[in-house]
Amino acid sequence: MCCGGASQTIQKTEVPKWLEDFYKKNIAETESVYGAAKDLYTQNQNQPQYGGQRIQGFTPDQLKAMEMARGSAGTGLASLQKGQALAEQSGQAITPEQIQQYMNPYTQQVLDPALRESAKANEQLRLSQQGKAAQMGAFGGSRGAIQASERERGYTQNVGDLTSKAYSSAFTGAMGQANADRARQLQAGQLLGQQGVQEQAMGVQDINTMLGTGAMQQTQGQRGLDLAYGNFVEQREQPYQNLARLQAGLKGSYYQPGPTSSTTTTTAPQANPFSQIAGAGLAGLSLYGGYGGFSPGGFGSMTPRY
Predict the structure, then answer these.
(1) Is 183 a member of any domain?
(2) Which one has a higher pLDDT value, 33 or 258?
(3) I need a labelling partner for 118 at 20 to 30 A (CA). Which of 103, 206, 207, 236 fits?
C-alpha cells in the first residue's frame, strides 16, 4: 500500500481433548436424566391419589361432652325459679288472715282463768258492798247504786285490760313468727338461687373437662394422620428428588479457557515524493498568507498570528 501500514491479527482458541470428552459425556448423561424424568412423569400421571384419612374426627369424649351439653339445657333452672318465688313471697305484706294463722290457739284458754278470777272478785265485792249497805240501812238507796256502778265499771275495765293484754301479746308473737318465716323464706330463696348457679357451673365444668380430654386425643390422632400423609408425599417425591440430585451433579464446574493466542503483523509504508512536495507547498502558502500576502497592503503589511 502506498499511503499507510497494514496489520493482521489471528486469534485461535483450542479446547483440551479431555474437556471435549467430558462435555460430550455430560451431554449424554443429561439426555439420559431427561428421558428418565419424562418417563417418571408419564408414569405418575395415573398415580392413585392418597386414600387415607386426612382429618381426625371427634373423639368419643368430645361426642360425650356434646351429648352432656344438650342434656344440661335448663340445669339449675328449677332451683332458680323456686328461689325467686320464695324471695318474692318474703317481700310481700303480711295479711290479717296470715297473722291469724300464727296466733296462739291457747290464748283464750289462758285468758279464761283470768276472766273468771276477775268475775269472782267482782262478785265478792258486790256481796260485800250489799252487806255493808244493809247494815247501814241504805240498801237500795242512791249510795248503793253509785257503789254498784263503780264496781261494774271497774270490772268491765279489768276484763278489757286482761283481754287486750292477752291478745296483744298473742299478736306480737304472731308477727314475730311471721317475720321470722319471711326471713327464712328469703334465705331459702337465696340458697336455692345459689344452688341453681352451682348446678349450672358443675355441669359446665364436667363438659369442659370432657372437651379438654377429647381435644388432646383429637390432636394426637391428627398428628398420626399428618405423619402418614407426609410419608406418602415423601415416597411419591423421592424419585424426583433423586433425579434432581443427578441433575445437580451433571452441572459440574465449567472450564474457563485461558487467554487466546494472537499474532499481529504490521507493514511500514514507503516515502512518496509527490506527497512531500505538496506538503511543502501548502506550508509556504500558509506562511505567505500569515504576513498579508493576500491582503490589500501586500506581503509584510500584517503580523502573523499563531
Answers:
(1) yes
(2) 33
(3) 103
